[in-house]
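User: Hi! I have a protein structure encoded as tokens and I'd like to know what sequence might fold into it. I'm fairly new to this, so please keep things simple.
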């Protein structure tokens, strides 16, 4: 199946064809760093990290840009309120943002341009728009004249009345309430830069256009962001960029759904229904959530819905995610016990190393000898599910469907082990085939950035020098002793106590094992 993506611009799925053969330019709107990052700031990066990984898997050379808005009204107000400088405040929260990205395994961003590092390009773009008659200066400000752009509104598909209601409103010097700021005159004491119109600073929208075109060129492939950015931010980016260059700006516009909180309490933040929850989103620290639930849980949760759908972030959703992930954890542990040499740790395949044509010569160890041998049915089932995974991803990056295919694959491996009584007889051919299936599962999960080791920082647990394992061995031995002396009440209390703190004991023919849920 050929990759198709939903384009907000056309409001339909389109065949993915790049601007330059074999290369993809992606731009994702990053945060305005006036406060600590919340979980909503992580949605886009996690989704687009998975998208980049998949595009690389398909053989594309991808350049991904995420901007940092480090000058803005909100930053100026927050710095003044806290008694610090705009730069110091922006640097602090940018570092926090980077830390959360690293914890969530978002490590494929190529450029993090900052608005303050592109003032020259911003001023030049403003001047170009004035020279071409699309913008005008008034009282030290520069405004984009919406009436001069005949197809303004083509991205958000809003009427003029809707644009008026959602725009910046009437201000002295503006010709229309729909016009938006490209350059803002500085107020006394504010951070500012010299310009042909006097001291000032850039408007929000012009920053992204200048940075995107500086790095990716006047026309690039994908522009992404949350649904809330479609208007006015992205609409204004399109207008000013295309008016300046006379060329299409971004070929495909991808908008991810927003995070919804519908729980009474998550991580200490009280939420009272959807409207209150939306307002309280900023109170839910990404760092706190990662520390409490684990980075891989949050990454899995964010990818378990189609990117265009809202993400219901609830205690139930987190609990369900942990249970779903336990399916894979138990399978990996099972294979590691049965197979002397554990499967290779997951890694994203090298760009272009595997495509949809894989069949007998698969990217993993499910190869011709398995397809033609005694376990051909199992091998074909695994490869069929691999193809299902790829079909899901080719259908507008449907990570939810891809993860469902991984669960089916895990079920196939477990059923194969059960049917062949692998724990009892440990037949080498069965174990080799099962390990090959798990390697396929791991590698495909790696395409989504799943099954990785959490990064150091907020996701990593403090080193305990093996103390946890030693304590668990002690609990298991105490429980075994209690059972031998027929003190079953104590044995049950030990199990229940461990279950209450998220530790599960599993009794098997080769002893008792434990795992953290």
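Assistant: Happy to help. Inverse folding works backwards from shape to sequence: for each of the 517 positions I chose a residue that suits the local structure. Here it is:
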């Amino acid at each position: 199946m050929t990759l198709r993506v939903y384009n907000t611009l056309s409001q339909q799925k389109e065949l993915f064809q790049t601007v330059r053969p074999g290369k993809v330019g992606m731009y994702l709107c990053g945060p305005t760093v006036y406060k600590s990052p919340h979980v909503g700031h992580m949605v886009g990066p996690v989704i687009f990290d998975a998208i980049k990984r998949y595009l690389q898997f398909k053989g594309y050379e991808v350049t991904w840009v995420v901007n940092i808005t480090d000058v803005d009204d909100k930053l100026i107000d927050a710095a003044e309120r806290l008694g610090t400088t705009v730069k110091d405040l922006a640097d602090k929260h940018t570092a926090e943002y980077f830390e959360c990205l690293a914890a969530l395994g978002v490590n494929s961003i190529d450029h993090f341009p900052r608005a303050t590092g592109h003032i020259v390009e911003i001023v030049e773009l403003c001047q170009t728009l004035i020279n071409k008659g699309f913008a005008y200066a008034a009282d030290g400000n520069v405004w984009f004249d919406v009436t001069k752009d005949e197809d303004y509104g083509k991205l958000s598909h809003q009427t003029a009345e809707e644009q008026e209601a959602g725009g910046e409103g009437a201000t002295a010097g503006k010709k229309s309430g729909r016009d938006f700021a490209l350059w803002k005159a500085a107020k006394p004491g504010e951070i500012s830069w010299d310009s042909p119109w006097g001291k000032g600073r850039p408007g929000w929208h012009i920053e992204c256009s200048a940075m995107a075109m500086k790095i990716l060129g006047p026309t690039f492939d994908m522009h992404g962001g949350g649904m809330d950015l479609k208007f006015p931010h992205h609409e204004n980016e399109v207008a000013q960029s295309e008016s300046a260059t006379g060329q299409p700006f971004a070929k495909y516009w991808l908008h991810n759904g927003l995070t919804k909180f519908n729980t009474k309490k998550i991580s200490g933040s009280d939420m009272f229904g959807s409207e209150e929850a939306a307002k309280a989103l900023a109170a839910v620290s990404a760092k706190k959530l990662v520390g409490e639930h684990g980075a891989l849980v949050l990454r899995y949760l964010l990818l378990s819905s189609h990117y265009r759908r809202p993400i219901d972030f609830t205690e139930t959703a987190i609990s369900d995610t942990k249970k779903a992930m336990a399916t894979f954890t138990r399978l990996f542990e099972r294979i590691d016990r049965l197979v002397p040499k554990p499967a290779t740790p997951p890694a994203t395949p090298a760009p272009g190393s595997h495509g949809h044509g894989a069949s007998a010569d698969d990217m993993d160890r499910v190869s011709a000898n398995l397809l033609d041998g005694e376990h051909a049915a199992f091998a074909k089932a695994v490869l069929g599910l691999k193809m299902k995974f790829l079909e899901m991803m080719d259908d507008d990056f449907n990570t939810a469907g891809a993860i469902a295919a991984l669960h089916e694959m895990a079920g196939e491996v477990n059923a194969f082990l059960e049917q062949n009584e692998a724990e009892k007889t440990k037949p080498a051919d069965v174990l080799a085939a099962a390990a090959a299936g798990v390697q396929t599962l791991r590698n495909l999960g790696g395409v989504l950035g799943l099954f990785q080791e959490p990064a150091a920082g907020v996701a990593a647990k403090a080193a305990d020098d093996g103390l946890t394992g030693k304590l668990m061995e002690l609990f298991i031995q105490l429980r075994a002793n209690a059972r031998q002396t027929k003190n079953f009440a104590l044995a049950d209390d030990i199990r229940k106590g461990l279950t209450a703190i998220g530790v599960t004991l599993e009794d098997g023919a080769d002893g008792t094992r434990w795992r953290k849920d």
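A useful reference point when you look it over: Residues 467-516 form one domain. Feel free to ask if any position seems puzzling.
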